[in-house]
Amino acid sequence: MSGQASPLSRFWAEFRESRIALAALVVVVLIVGVAVLAPLVAPQNPYDLANLALMDARRPPGYVGSGGFTHWLGTDAQGRDLLSAILYGLRISLQMGLIAGSVAFVVGVSLGLGAAYLGGRWEAFIMRIIDLQLAFPAILLALVLSAMLGQGKAQLITALVAAQYAYFARTAHGAASAERGKDYVEAALSTPLPAWQVVFRHILPNCLPPLIVVATVQVANAIALEATLSFLGVGLPVTEPSLGMLIANGFQYMLSGRYWISIYPGIALILLIVAINLVGDQIRDQVNPRLKR
Amino acid sequence: MLGHVIERLVQALAVMLVMSALVFTGVYAIGNPIDVLIGPDVTQQIRLDTIARYGLDRPLYEQYFTFLGRILQGDFGRSFVFGMPVLELILSRLPATLELTLAAVCGAALIGIPAGIYAGYRPDGLPAKIIMAVSILGFSVPTFWIGLVLIITFAVELQWLPAGGRGTTATLFGVEWSFLTLNGLSHLLLPALNLAFFKLALMTRLARAGTREVMLTDTVKFARAAGLSEWTVLRRHVLRLIAIPIVTVFGLEFASTLAFAVVTETIFSWPGIGKLIIDSITSLDRPVMVAYLMLVAFVFITINFLVDLAYVGLDPRLRKARA
Amino acid sequence: MTRPSQNGPLLEVDDLATHFFTRAGVIRAVDGVSFSLKRGEVMGLVGESGSGKSVTGFSLLGLIDPPGRIVSGSVRFDGQDLVALPPAQLRRLRGRKIAMVFQDPATTLNPVVTIGDQMRMALEAHGVRGEQRTRERSVAVLTRVGIPDAARRLKAYPHEFSGGMRQRVAIAIALLHDPALLIADEPTTALDVSIQAQILAEMRGLVADLGMALIWISHDLATVSSLADSIAVMYAGRIVEAGPTAAVLRDPRHHYTRGLLDSLPARAEPGRDLVQIPGTTPSLLALPPGCAFAPRCPRADETCLAMPALVSDGLRRHRCHHPLGLEGAP
To answer: Is the peptide bond before A289 cis (omega within 30 degrees of 0)?
Structure first.
């Protein structure tokens, strides 16, 4: 009970105690790092056609290609260096996950807080719709929407947001309803501060811990969902080859033993999602007051 | 109690109505279905005739009411692609999906709940850590990827199990089922495993979280103080106390598993409604899409209703409040 | 129940220590507690929340959850050392020879199991089986603790009882096997004052009729004094004073006991403010060296920086360098 330490540093100290979570965090940071720096660290720009030679196509890992460097993870059907393709793919997957997650966060939290703030009929109406949607499988919604809207980044993000905002709304509403009844909110509401300021300056910060947990899980889910949609052929266009599409492209060669074209992008995808979820899991355990010792 | 049931039934009907309107406008308002029906090189006359024949020239709300009227008579229209009544088409594919989903959800519950209770009972032991690691993997790894790995491992490398199709089926109640033959079972195993993985992780985590919290309560302490064995405490107290959230999720997940079957059926070429809907989406076969979505909505609402009834059975506190 | 130790103490706790090994450090919740109890004797274990009185109760039954554990000491019950007993044998004693009831009956009883089933589980745990036998025993004990129409109420769920009735059900479960010792952990704290009085009266009757020893754990000196033959006062994990109830109340040795007595409304002169003990209970993680009560004690000086020993004079014990009523004694 060292009262001096700030909540954040205490949180960090507790987080560090879990080696698995710490390792997962390192993996997340590393993956985000190489994805951001992909043009600098990738051996090849896989989407510059001038770099590609058909004779390098579908070569196994370790093959030294006509570019004069070793393809550590092999090459795909177009003769792309798979490692480079994965790094660029991670970039797209992460981008989709983060954008969709952030937009869903903003939309969902606004709706959830709004419902809790408005109360009465509006609250009942908004939450009823959100409950209804939560009962409906996210993947189906995303599938139908992306099929309807057509292929493209904006369309996919719309589909992902539509599939995910409800989780944020539910969580924000639950936390905000609990906060609303507390004395400090009553006190803040009785000051001349505008009500929306009370909501954002007082209620929102107190709802953040559960929302952060949901956000980590939902970013991971968005990445997985995007990969699934792209794998099923209703996600991103071929000009935006995310990890899901790399896996789908390799699927047809899998049965003939050229496993690496699908497997390595898959491993990268799983590493990323598992690492994010492990971090989220630790945060969840730490913010759950019922498990406090 | 009866009043409660009726109230819930009315609610369910209202929800179905809202869903039908949403699905109908969602599917029909976007894009132009006529382009799927006819080739680009037909004459304008044929084009107009086709539009008129499918009622596509009517205002949207009129189309909706026509659609609603037909649904009430069990007529979901004809598939643009297959040229047969949609209801017939979906019903012919439903048993395959039902069989797959049931196998997956039951398997997940039978393995996941005991594993989760154990992990929650001894949260610091090595087995619990392994169970949780596997469950995080099951939670994180996309279904399609697990499907690929299963095929690579058991179908391609080991050649133990087939990679696709339903295999030999046998007839029961006039419907073809795979699980009734050995060959069919071998075809069912991989896709069911694939579909179960995510649910398994979910059930495990749910049971673990519930058990962890219940184990810290005075109820468990009091039971131990009365000399009950750990086994009795787990079976008679903990299981009853965590049953309520688990039944909810079991019900809801059954319905969402129907949806996830889309992915599994695509990978394993399992001829169910999931495969059908993916094909319909890519070919923009709207009547099939609408009917499928209505069916999923119906299953959802039915299950929600049943879960609600199950609550009352599981939680005596509700029985009194709602009687 | 014909044991050679019939005339000796039923329970002898010696130097018991239960510590919790948490992230923030080791919490010495119980640290060197000793006391003994004769058959049929009622002892009040008094202290503020966090003083270690409940942990003491749970330690006797071996019901300490990780990260806590009994680190030393012994609990001799009816000739057996419970601390050294294998878990399976300890379980066979729990509920049969030693039973316990808790503070809040709303959380101790399982809300989704009928009380009849809960009683049957407790009976079957110690080999009483069969629909007929379990039913008869349950009805008999429920009636004994004052539940009207017991046979019919076996099918009821806990939420169908009032708070006081629920606690009676919990007490009935504890009494199913006629235990030699009952540990009651603040069993009336969660109840209304009028119900408290009823339960207290009920307990007095039960103890007298059944010849059962009772450890009554409470923060409330007033309820304890109306029930207990002897009192042990705990502070920060240690017993600071113990002795026959009348003697302790009339003539407390420890300044903490004095403070507790002065803060009782019944003892205050009408029209005057109640006296409060200054300061707050120390954190068990950051105990001061020596006597833990020293920072709040009016008589503390530098000698109190050393831990006072538990001094015994006849029937009474105290842990203070400057005991009241014995000025000048070592």
So the answer is: no
pTM value surpassing 0.80: no
Q: What is the CATH number of the domain that holds A220?
A: 1.10.3720.10
**Which of C100, C125, C170 is the closest to B232 by Cβ?**
C125
Whether residue A5 lies inside any domain: the answer is no
Q: Are C291 and C308 in contact (CB under 8 A)?
A: yes
Q: C66 is written with which tokens? A: 């990780």
Judged by CB atoms closer than 8 Å, whether chains meet at A1 and C22 is answered as no
Token representation of residue B52: 């008129």
Indicate the residue of A147, A247, A259 with minimum beta-carbon distance to B152: A259
Does residue A229 lie within any of the structural domains?
A: yes
Question: Do the domain assignments include residue A70?
Answer: no
Cβ–Cβ below 8 Å for C22 and A14: no
Axis crossing angle, helix A243-254 with helix A204-232, rounded to the nearest 10: 30
Region of residue A60 (phi > 0: left; psi between -120 and 50: alpha; otherwise: beta)? beta
B-C contacts (CB, under 8 Å): 93
DSSP lists the bridge partners of residue C44 as C216, C231
Half-sphere exposure of A226 (CA within 13 A, CB side): 38
A242: in domain: yes
Structural domain total, chain A: 1
Q: How far is A1 from chain C (nearest CA, A)?
A: 6
Test B320 with C160 for CB contact under 8 angstroms. Answer: yes
Domain around A275: 18-44+76-291
Long-range CB contacts for residues A12-17, cutoff 8 Å, separation at least 24: A14/A286, A14/C23, A15/A282, A15/A283, A15/A286, A17/C23
The tens place of each residue's pLDDT in chain B, 323 residues long, gives 677 778 778 877 887 888 788 777 777 665 566 666 666 677 777 777 777 776 767 777 787 888 788 888 878 777 877 878 888 888 888 888 888 888 998 898 899 999 999 998 888 888 888 888 888 888 778 888 888 888 888 877 777 877 777 777 777 776 777 777 777 778 888 899 888 888 888 889 889 988 988 888 889 999 999 889 889 999 889 998 888 778 877 777 777 788 778 888 888 888 888 888 888 877 777 788 888 888 888 887 788 778 777 777 777 776 655 44
Please give the ipTM for the structure prediction: 0.87
